[in-house]
Amino acid sequence: MNKIPECLIHPVSIKLIRSGHPWITADNFSNRFPRQSEFVIATDDRKRPMALLIHDPYHKNVKARVWSTRFPFEREAQHFTASIQGRLDLAFEKRIQMKELKERENYYLVFGEADQLPGLFVLRLKDRVLIQFYTSFWNRYKSIIQTTIQEVFPEIKDENIWFQLRGETKELQKLPTNAVDAGRRDEFHLSEFGLQYLIRLGSSYDHGIYTDMSSIRHALVKIIQPGSSLLNLYSYTGAYSLWAMKLGASEVVSVDLSPKYIEWLQQNIALNPELEHTQHTAITASVDDALSDLRKNEKTFDVIVCDPPSSSSDGAKRTSAIKTYKELLFKMDRLLNPKGKLIVFLNTHQVTQEKFDRVLKDYLGELKLNYKMSTRLHLGQDCPTLKGFPEGSYLKGIVLEKI
Ligand SMILES: C[S@@+](CC[C@H](N)C(=O)[O-])C[C@H]1O[C@@H](n2cnc3c(N)ncnc32)[C@H](O)[C@@H]1O
Q1: Strand ranges, E, within 173-224
Q2: What CATH number matches the domain at 80-186, 3.30.70.20, 3.50.30.80, 3.30.1490.100, 3.30.750.80?
Q3: Domain span(s) for CATH 2.30.130.10 in the chain
Q4: Does the beta carbon of 282 lie inside 6 Å of ligand 1?
Q5: Whose CA is nearest to atom 25 of ligand 1?
Q6: Is 239 near ligand 1, meaning CB less than 6 Å away?
Q7: pLDDT at residue 317 in the model
Q8: What secondary structure does DSSP assign to 132-180, as a single string?
Q9: Per-residue pLDDT tens for 172-214?
Q10: What is the pTM of this model?
């Protein structure tokens, strides 16, 4: 193995790495890492080596990720392949031990940085596995990752292994492709808490169910009471709608702008004959228009779920979800019955749970709305988070109880 270059990193990165943050973002230091080097040893201002990094010069923002802070780094690099296997095995073992996952056919086997496999996510989807790379660094380790998975889970066949490059930038947003047949489309059903969902691999960027929200869905057992009415805003393929129906909601209304997702939602309902489909109404419209129409028709609900995309564009300008919440709170409140509950989410690492709480509290104060901020909802079980790494804790929610 070639000698690994030692590179000084930005003073802020030095501090962040010391506090457990595993990313080196683009700056005057990281942009100068030798492009052809797979690994880089980060050094501090006194030229002391402090971490072995895996390097991705092609990533727009995250140029390198911490692989190890254990000396000697040359040796850590020599044992890299064995360490990948060891870390994968450990991550799998943790999930095998989790009894909460027994009721789900969709869960994360690996959750990136928090499993010490930076930028690598592995999802179990029934008898398939979807391997997601958030850095193209992992491309050259495809085969070792696949072999390690199949050693632990021999029932997973080659044709059921899928790879996907994901990320915030367009270059990092690819459809999942099958290892054996790159052009394959794969539609199948999987079950979660006794409900069936339609999954599509190979034909769209997202496969039909947000697995990272699964433990949150389960937590709503205590919040959605049988007999209640529920409005699901930004419903996507309807996971919250189906779950509410299963929990005994008497009426569920789902709203999404996308006809494709509303149709998918209808298919999901049809897959579950025990759900009373006449209790469900789908509205293909913007949340803004739907809230106005529902108000005109004097509809009210006991529970409203609101899970907007982290930012949206009207063509002219981008608005972050947190900014839209003031208006959303005002409009949702008018549709909420006394003692009703708003379940509001924010899906971005740029706002911490504390800030989200504070902003909501301020908005409620400005709007003179009386709510108790109750249960906090966040990533759990198969989706661990890391102290000192807010980017990994991107999903946050809170239940607001109308007083
Ligand atoms: C983050 S996903 C919601 C995931 C969903 N809550 C779940 O758990 O499955 C956001 C959804 O919002 C929809 N969407 C985006 N902008 C919208 C708007 N202005 N009005 C209605 N739906 C919108 C998208 O089509 C997408 O399905």
Answers
A1: 177-178, 186-192, 195-201
A2: 3.30.750.80
A3: 6-77
A4: no
A5: 258
A6: yes
A7: 75
A8: EESSGGGGGGHHHHHHHHHHH-TTS-GGGEEEEE--SSGGG----EESS
A9: 789 999 988 888 999 999 999 999 999 999 999 999 999 999 9
A10: 0.96
